[in-house]
Amino acid sequence: MAEHRMYMANPLARINMVIKAPDKIIDVQVIGDECIGCGDLKPWVLKLSRDIGCIMCTYTIGAYGNEHLILGVEPRIELTMGVVNNVVNTIVRWFNGEW
C-alpha cells in the first residue's frame, strides 16, 4: 500500500497497462517552448508539459484515427547538436524563474 501511494504521488512514475495497439506511434520532444515533431499537436503537448511541470520531456503518443493518447512520458530528451541551443536557453530561462 505504501509503495502504491508513493508511485501515485509521482506524475512521471511508470505503470504498465494493456490497451489496443495504436494506428501510429509519434515520438515528440518538448524543450521549453519548443515542441519537436509535434506538428498540429503542439498546443496540446505544450499545455501537458506545463501542467506536469516538465520543461524537457520526450512523449510517446498513440494515434487512434483522429484521437491521440499519451502512451509514455520520459523526463529526459535526446541531446543532439540540433537541440543544444534550445536546451541551453531553456535551462537559463528555468534558472531565471520563468518556469
- Say how many strands there are: 4
Strand content: 25-35%
- Decide which structural class fits the backbone: alpha+beta
Q: What is the N-to-C order of secondary-structure elements (H for helix, E for strand)?
A: HEEHEEH
Ends apart, CA distance between termini: 33 Å
Describe the biggest sheet? Answer: 4 strands, antiparallel
Strand order of the largest sheet: 2-1-3-4
How would you describe the shape? globular
Low-confidence stretches: 1-5
* Residue share in helix: 25-40%
Radius of gyration: 15 Å
Mean pLDDT: 83
Number of helices: 3
Oligomer: single chain
Describe the structure.
By secondary structure, the chain is an alpha+beta fold. The protein has three helices and four strands, in the order αββαββα. Strands 2-1-3-4 form a four-stranded antiparallel beta sheet. It is globular. The N and C termini lie far apart (33 Å).
Quick rundown:
With 99 residues, this protein is α+β, with helices and mostly antiparallel strands. It has helices spanning 2-8, 42-52, 84-95; strands at residues 24-31, 34-36, 56-64, 67-74. A four-stranded antiparallel beta sheet has the order 2-1-3-4.
Note the main attributes of this structure.
4 strands, globular, 3 helices, 4-stranded antiparallel β-sheet, 99 residues, single chain, alpha+beta, 30% helix, disordered N terminus
